[in-house]
Amino acid sequence: MSEKETIITKLEKGRAEFAYNCVKEAIKFLDVRKKKEYRSYIRKIPQMILSNGLGQTLAFIYSKKEDGNAYDLIYKQFINYLKSDSPARIKIPTNENELIEWVISLDSYNYRYVTEELLAFLNWLKRFAEGMIEEEEE
Amino acid sequence: MFREKRLLFLITETPLHAGSGSEVGIVDLPIQRERYTDFPKIESSGLKGCIREAFEGYRIFENNESKLINNPKVNELLEDFPQLQESWVIQQDKERQQKTDKNGNKLIKFDEALYLLFGPEDEEAYAGAITITDARILLFPVKSLKGIFAWITCPMVLERFKKDLEIIGVESFRFNNFNNFVNTLPKESNIKISSKIVLEEFTFDVKEDETTRNIAEWFSERIFPNENSYKFWREKIKKDLVILSDDDFRQFTKTSTEVITRTKIDDKTGTVLSGALWTEEYLPQDTILYTLIMFTPTRVEKEDQKGVFRANSPQNEVELVCKFFEKGLPEVIQIGGNQTIGKGFVRTNILRKEV
Question: Does residue B25 sit at the A interface (CB-CB below 8 Å)?
Fold first, then answer.
């Protein structure tokens, strides 16, 4: 069995596994406060994409990210995901490291595919983040 | 088996939440969708319940007795079925008894008609004389850069609609090969910017098409009630209908529904209760769906159980059942969740049979 086939037989083309590892990465590299932020941002982002569109949402994340904060990690994870083998219909070119720049240059069709792709990915991320990171006790 | 069939247009006048109850998606409380197309729908069981409830709204219980309210629709019904206010008396072991519901309220012939039409409330003795299918999507409103919004549809939806019209026996929808009309719209549309339209954030190259104009015209003459207050909408649909590809249509029905965030405020602190924040999905207002409604003769054995639908032949019986439904169906019914916050008002409009 080749590498490609095993990917396809995995749950949603390995999307679930990828998301699980992303949340593990967040737990490992972020401090307690940022972990909680990561959890709440991941919960908020799908909603933002639905109401404002992917471009606006990515621009927002882009404006909020600073070295080492949760938004920064999320932005990087989006790029890594789009470079992985999981996305079915669209991939970010391997030399492209600025997600927002690439997204705003896409035509309508591809823009829509990326939106769908990231929403599907976020769906897993959200579940794992909710399950693996403790909620804020206010 | 079915001897009378009607197509009922449903026009949402406020956002509608026919919930599916499951919550594994992005939205906590998503709406019902078809399994294999993801198109929004309304389950027939919920729809039937709402229609029944609307009919039940014509009567109140006063001093343990069922009474019809004074209302134009009720008066219309009474013209055709004058016995509706009489007591509902049943033969039991050679004795005549006043029929009561489980709370001891005395029932009238109107209640009997509802039992016969929708099925009995207290026992599963017989089935109703009506069959309602799931409501299917026909036109979906989407934000447009110009002209506020467009109604979108797609070849698959139109093919289905055509097939459903054939079931009903309506032949005037003489259009075919909808795949040839992808990305077309009627002439002089208000939503076009040179040769493009912009829906939400997506730009489409579109062409004007004569057939699409005729389709829009067909809808415009039939979907909305023939009242002056709908003149604006009839005109709008003539111009601002767009046929998109199946995939584009599905995409919009998935990502352009109304999603609202709700919270519950703690009375003491005046801030959000912990954990009380959730999202709900709604079909936007001005969505147009349709459902097929079919009538059979009543499903009771004895002639004297047929109440106001008693007739000299099964065919005449069906006609009476159908007439009762058509006359009595309220112009506006409420479907789905959150009725107390004004959601789910739906305008009903029965497509009359055409030759």
Answer: yes
Q: Which residue of B has its CA nearest to A126?
A: B26
| Inter-chain CB pairs, A–B, below 8 Å | 30
Q: Distance between CA atoms of B90 and B122, rounded to whole angstroms?
A: 15
CA within 13 Å, CB half, A101: 5
List the one residue out of B263, B256, B295, B294 whose CA is nearest residue B277.
Answer: B263
DSSP B182: T
**Optimal mutation site among B142, B201, B257, interface A, most CBs of chain A within 10 A:** B201
Q: Which residues of B touch A55 (CB under 8 A)?
A: 201
> What gap in Å lies between CA B15 and CA B194, rounded to an integer?
32
- Name, in order, each residue with C-beta under 8 angstroms of B306's C-beta and a sequence gap of 6 or more: B116, B298, B300, B317
Asked if the Cβ–Cβ distance from B274 to A138 is below 8 Å, we say yes
Residue B272: which residues within 8 A CB-CB, separation 6 or more?
B263, B264, B265, B266
Chain A residue with the nearest C-alpha to that of B253: A50
Q: How far does B203 lie from chain A, in Å, by closest CA? A: 7
**Interface contact A47-B259, CB threshold 8 A:** yes
The tens place of each residue's pLDDT in chain B, 355 residues long, gives 568 999 999 999 999 999 998 777 788 899 999 999 999 999 999 999 999 999 999 999 999 999 999 999 999 999 999 999 988 988 777 788 888 888 889 999 999 999 999 999 877 788 999 999 999 999 999 999 999 999 999 999 999 999 999 999 898 999 999 999 999 999 999 999 999 999 998 999 999 999 999 999 999 999 998 889 999 999 999 999 999 999 999 999 999 999 998 999 989 999 888 878 889 999 999 999 999 999 999 998 888 888 999 998 889 999 999 999 999 999 999 999 899 999 999 999 999 776 4
CB contact under 8 A, A108 and B203: yes
The residue whose two tokens read 């197509």 is B7
Compare CB distances from B259 to A51, A126, A138 and report the shortest one's residue. A51
The structure's pTM equals 0.89
